[in-house]
Design brief:
- This protein has about 350 residues and is mainly β.
- The chain has one domain: Distorted Sandwich (Beta-galactosidase, Chain A, domain 5).
- The chain has 2 helices and 23 strands.
- It has helices at about 30-35, 220-225; strands at about 40-45, 50-55, 65, 70-75, 95, 100-105, 105-110, 120, 130-135, 140-150, 150-160, 165-170, 180-190, 195-200, 205-210, 245-250, 255, 260-265, 280-285, 290-300, 305-310, 320-335, 340-345.
- The strands form 4 sheets. The chain has a 9-stranded antiparallel beta sheet with strand order 9-10-11-12-23-20-19-14-17, with no helix packed on it. Strands 8-7-13-22-21-18-15-16 form an 8-stranded antiparallel beta sheet, with no helix packed on it. It has a 4-stranded antiparallel beta sheet with strand order 1-2-3-4.
- β7 (about 105-110) and β8 (about 120) form a beta hairpin.
- The protein is globular.
- About 40% of the residues are buried.
- InterPro entries: Gal_mutarotase_sf_dom, GH-type_carb-bd.
């Protein structure tokens, strides 16, 4: 089993980099970043649409790719077979238009401090590289930062031989408390629709609920809640419960061939009790088509979001699920001078 990201994250160094391109002779953003932060296993390049990205590659060849301006992880290829080319892309992405990407792994931070507000994105400016770190080439880390009003947000992406982690630290430097709805959502690729499932949620309460709104989500909140059309052979198939209706997962394996959009967590009213059941800290995806499985571990978040597109063909030919830790039903409250941390780890032992 891979060593997990310690939740005592390194203190950031106060050296932000913002690149100016006011002259023709100035180096590109990726060149400047590579000169300042590049090292063995950490390489800054540019995508065809001039978006700076950083590629991390550890000793066993496992790699990931992170878009810097929007903090979106668009590729994670862990080594899952012993053969030389035994790498498998596990993230699902689609072109989003005008240089953007849908899918991958992304962070959502929405300010819901106003009771009448549906939430507005906290990070309205682009991320900048704050620091990088490495332990030989078996552990690599990139640290992004973004100042959003009275909030300082740090986003850390780490890669290890058998795992990857994404973590967020939000520090409230303002004078008022801030209520945040947040999630780290991963779009995971599956070989087939029929063989998709997760294991480890039995006994956990859940309700039908839309995902948090984001710029990278493949299914919008409205699309995720739209009922799946009934086909010729859909008799007896599972349908989504009505929003607000709570159910306890009674199956050992949660089958995801049909369309679902759920939050697994303790109902808000249950959390008022001294003792209540919390969702599991980890669960595992199962892809019968590839024979691969990945554990998803949550830290600092209260909920687990899980969705699948069902029979719809509008999202590409491959199948995927969207899942990850979240705090959706009860916002995270960050008082002045305080900070909050949340993280997701994806690990495997397929080798």
């Amino acid at each position: 089993m891979a060593s997990l990201l310690p939740f005592s994250l390194p203190k950031p160094k106060p050296n932000l980099i913002k690149v100016s391109s006011s002259t023709v002779t100035a180096p590109s953003t990726s060149q400047t970043l590579d000169q300042k932060f590049g090292r063995k296993g950490i390489k800054f390049i540019e995508e065809p649409d001039d978006v700076p990205v950083v590629e991390l590659t550890v000793r066993n060849g496992s790699s990931l790719r992170l878009r810097i301006p929007d903090g979106l992880v668009t590729s994670y290829k862990p080594k899952v077979y012993w053969k030389d080319d035994g790498f498998e892309e596990i993230l699902y992405t689609l072109p989003g238009g005008t240089g953007s990407v849908k899918g991958g792994i992304g962070l959502i931070l929405n300010d819901v401090s106003e009771s009448t507000s549906k939430g507005s994105p906290v990070c309205t400016s682009q991320w900048v590289v704050k620091d990088v770190d490495s332990d030989s080439i078996d552990a690599l880390q990139v640290e992004l930062s973004c100042a959003c009003g009275g909030l300082d947000v740090t986003y850390i992406v780490s890669l290890y031989p058998l795992s990857m982690a994404t973590a967020v630290i939000v520090k409230n430097n303002g004078r008022k408390a801030v209520n945040l709805a947040s999630a780290i959502l991963s779009h995971l690729k599956f070989k087939s629709r029929k063989g998709s499932a997760v294991h480890g949620l039995k006994g956990c309460s859940y309700c039908t609920h839309p995902p948090l709104s984001s710029s990278f989500g493949i299914l919008s909140p409205a699309e995720a809640m739209k009922p799946e059309p009934l086909g010729l052979f859909s008799f007896g198939s599972e349908t989504q419960n009505k929003p607000g209706s709570w159910t306890v997962e009674d199956e050992l394996y949660t089958i995801l061939k049909n369309k679902v959009s759920r939050v697994y967590t303790a109902p808000p009213e249950e959390r008022l009790k001294r003792i209540y059941n919390t969702p599991p800290s980890k669960y595992q995806t199962i892809d019968q088509g590839s024979g691969l499985g990945f554990r998803v571990i949550r830290m600092g978040y209260d909920d687990i979001y899980l969705s699948s597109p069902g029979s719809s063909q509008k999202y590409g030919k491959d199948y995927f699920i969207c899942t990850g830790p979240a705090s959706m039903l009860v916002p995270v409250v960050i008082n002045p001078g305080e900070e909050w941390r949340g993280a997701q780890v994806i690990e495997h032992d397929n080798l």
